[in-house]
Amino acid sequence: MKNVIGAVCIKCGAEQTAANDTYTCKKCGGILEIVYDYHYIKSRLTREKLAADKEYSIWRYLDLLPIEEGSKLSALRVGWSPLYKTEAMGKALGLKNLYIKDDGLNPTSSLKDRASAIAAVRALHAGKNIVACSSTGNAASSLAGNAAALGLRSFIFVPERAPIGKLTQLLIFGATVIKVKGNYEDTFRLSAEAIAQYGWYNRNAAINPYLSEGKKTVSLEIAEQLGFIAPDYVAISVGDGCTIAGVWKGFKDLYALGLIDKLPKLISVQAEGCCPVNRAIETNSPIEPMEENTLADSIAVGVPRNGDKALMAIRESKGITVNVSDDEILAAMRLLGNTAGVFGEPAGVAGTAGLKKVVEKNLIPQDATVVSVVTGNGLKDITSAQKAAGEIGGPIHIAPDMGLLEDEFRKRGIEV
Amino acid sequence: MKNVIGAVCIKCGAEQTAANDTYTCKKCGGILEIVYDYHYIKSRLTREKLAADKEYSIWRYLDLLPIEEGSKLSALRVGWSPLYKTEAMGKALGLKNLYIKDDGLNPTSSLKDRASAIAAVRALHAGKNIVACSSTGNAASSLAGNAAALGLRSFIFVPERAPIGKLTQLLIFGATVIKVKGNYEDTFRLSAEAIAQYGWYNRNAAINPYLSEGKKTVSLEIAEQLGFIAPDYVAISVGDGCTIAGVWKGFKDLYALGLIDKLPKLISVQAEGCCPVNRAIETNSPIEPMEENTLADSIAVGVPRNGDKALMAIRESKGITVNVSDDEILAAMRLLGNTAGVFGEPAGVAGTAGLKKVVEKNLIPQDATVVSVVTGNGLKDITSAQKAAGEIGGPIHIAPDMGLLEDEFRKRGIEV
Fold it and tell me: Smallest Cα–Cα separation from A329: which of A279, A280, A266, A378?
């Protein structure tokens, strides 16, 4: 990879080669971050080149991605999700320049496709024919889908509590699913053991430093879609920390290349019932494990494996932390649906819920340019959507008769 | 609309103005088709113009759409879904040039967004602030989503049997949902009465001739994505007939403009348990009502309201009809998932199931260029996906122990 210099440990700062999919620091075991040769990339990745590029997917940013030359790229169209300027929702929130990035429109319906596409491409290039991870959710389904499209097999380890809907998507994508009798820690351990023993490609995001490089493409797109002007704020939900770290990395890359001339502030949103990253920021102390009490399952991570990277990102950006209740998450789901026509899953809309709270607290100016990333499709979790919809009052239930319909409209005060 | 001449009745051939959202023939009550001024459009819609156009949505084809000048266009990004060349699936089916068009990646996760976007834009321009339709499925959710994004309200009439998952999406999009005690006919009737009484914009696709104009954009995209070469065959599932009619119209438009130099043959796929359109073709007789016995609910239409348009399209294209069982549909769901990484709903993959059958019967040559359109996302109907996944054998269920894992791999003959 001519564009990659190597990797650096975010804990001890030790530099190392990134060539052999080294996943953790050889000195201290810390998490690595990929280091690019910006000088080399600067001559290749220009606004003009991008303006002429018709590859509307994450691969338009190949110069900024850790992909070996000559790799066969993912067959699915990952990335270049729409960025909507939404006046109605802006008005509801009291923001004049609000944008929604709908990442639920990725091939397997979540932002995680951005990371899994990188994993599948790197695995194939490395001569692996099996990729593996432990996950109950979007990481798993995106890995299974992206692997299938490239002709790779996938082995997915899930804890016993994994909902049947999510298992189903995995099975349809042809994954071998191993349901582990135990909790997430047990599941993760068995997956790590099997990966080591069989030499499979490891897509456990917190360990594999290449994956947040995929996630950063969401920021590259936001900046390009805004005409190479970074927004003032980006609101995003935080679970294991890998996504917010990727978001920050994307903007930093563009800044280093001179493609944007300022950096946004991050709004880190966690669930009240599970907010170890935000608590660490707020109390200026190390991350301590927490219970996982929230319906937003994709961000219910009590022991964030990429917590350090997340803390660094939030602090460097002089970001804001905010925690939201499940009710606030459900309200955000309704707000996005009926003002912007965007249907997100609970974890996917938590960022929006947090943004609403931040505006109410007057923590950001009304005329700021703000992007709220919706990270997953609402169809992924219909049970939670039903809870959100329940608050609305439900359908009108009548016999087929105009008189009855008129009565109901009157009774409910519905203007027609 | 400078590009639209008027409308013509597909039954009696009477010409009429299309200006005032006239929905049926004034002479015989037949269904109308929009007539374009190809001479005018020819000078505007060229390959060069499209090559330079960065509007990657249905609006890149505005010259071929019935949209009033100066209309505010849909806020959602509808269309320009990916067209995947899938070698693995082609091999499984015995086709050398197989493409999958994944229309489940539209904003509300189905092809119907293409029609609903037109409806919402036309409604807004006509000064309406309420749009309405009767539907249990994708037409309804796409209308509710596209209306919400444009600041319009939506009133959706659903029959009592409508599944809660689909109702939920409607409520999240802020629709007023009227659940009618009765069957689909009762529901449709009440919706028609209410629409007439209140003057709402009518999105009942079979009646509103503008909607298949939206659906035709899927063909405009297929042709452009193939470099302005029409495929030899397009396989698509058929319910009320509006979609296959739209598919055909798109190719005919391009042919009339000289942008493609041949027309594809259509492969019309229906469910064995509900195939009134295909039966009419096969027996060369008028469409007769049928029971609705299939799990592919989006194409379970016993009385196709756009049957005449569908028959015309299949006959004009010298097309092929094929009916598939529910088991064949579920098998297609697995095949698409594990060879192409595409997850479709039952009605969405029925086209693929039919294509498989047509190849097995040697009805099309192996080297033909074939496009199979997947019309809706598998997440829309997890219950059916579970049935499909059930056939796979389910997950391996073990305690977190490497020895047990190895045993299971051996027992099941899984190579690692």
Answer: A378
Q: Which A residues 66-95 touch B at CB under 8 Å? A: 75-77, 82, 84, 86, 88
| Tokens at B116, concatenated | 């609903």
A389:B168 CB<8 A: yes
Give per-residue pLDDT as tens, B32-87: 999 999 999 999 999 999 999 999 999 999 999 999 999 999 889 999 999 999 99
Length of chain B: 416
* Distance between first and last Cα of chain A: 62
> In Å, what is the CA distance from B237 to each residue of A4, A253, A359, A408?
47, 45, 47, 38
pLDDT band of residue B298 (cuts 50, 70, 90) is confident
- Chain B residues with CB under 8 Å of A138 CB are none
Mean pLDDT of chain A: 94
Quote the pLDDT of residue A167: 86
Closest residue by Cα to residue B377 from B53, B6, B107? B107
Q: How far apart are CA B154 and CA A87, in angstroms?
A: 19
Chain A contact present for B378, CB below 8 A: yes
Chain B closest-CA separation from residue A350 CA (Å): 15
Residues of A in contact with B86 (CB under 8 A): 75, 149
CB contact under 8 A, A75 and B56: no
Distances from the Cα of A335 to the Cα of A9, B38, B117, B172, B342, angstroms: 41, 43, 20, 8, 30
**Best A102, A339, A416 residue to mutate vs chain B (most B CBs within 10 Å):** A416
**Pairing state between β B15-16 and B4-9:** antiparallel
Phi, psi for B258 (deg, rounded to 5): 75, 15
**Is there a contact between A272 and A353 (Cβ–Cβ < 8 Å)?**
no
Q: What average pLDDT score do residues B165-193 get?
A: 90
Nearest chain B residue to A176 by CA distance is B395
Q: Is B267 helix (H, G, I), strand (E, B) or coil?
A: strand
Tens-digit pLDDT profile for residues A25-45:
889 988 899 999 999 999 999
pLDDT band at B163 (very low <50, low <70, confident <90, very high): confident
Residues of A in contact with B341 (CB under 8 A): 75-76, 107-108, 145-150, 173
Query: What is the reported pLDDT for B21?
Result: 62
Alpha helices in B296-390 (DSSP H): 307-316, 326-340, 346-360, 382-390
Q: How confident is the model at residue B19 (pLDDT cuts 50, 70, 90)?
A: low
pLDDT, position B17:
82
List pLDDT tens digits, range A117-146: 999 999 999 999 999 999 878 999 999 999
Distances from the Cα of B215 to the Cα of A214, B35, B229, B269, angstroms: 33, 15, 19, 17
* CA gap B317, B359 in Å, rounded: 18
Answer yes or no: is pLDDT of B156 > 90. Answer: yes
**Level-2 CATH architecture, domain B83-109+211-390:** 3-Layer(aba) Sandwich (3.40)
Beta-strand (E) ranges in A191-350? 201-202, 233-237, 265-271, 320-324
Residue B311 CB contacts under 8 Å (≥ 6 apart), including other chains? B241, B277, B280, B281, B287
Q: pLDDT per residue over A79-109, tens digit each?
A: 999 999 999 999 999 999 999 999 999 999 9
Number of CB atoms found within 10 A of residue B62's CB: 16
The identity of residue B353, as a single letter, is A
CB-CB neighbors (< 8 A) of B88 in chain A? 151
Are B9 and B30 within 8 A, CB to CB?
A: yes
Q: Quote the CA–CA distance of A266 and A34 in Å, as a whole number.
A: 21
Average pLDDT over all residues of chain B:
94
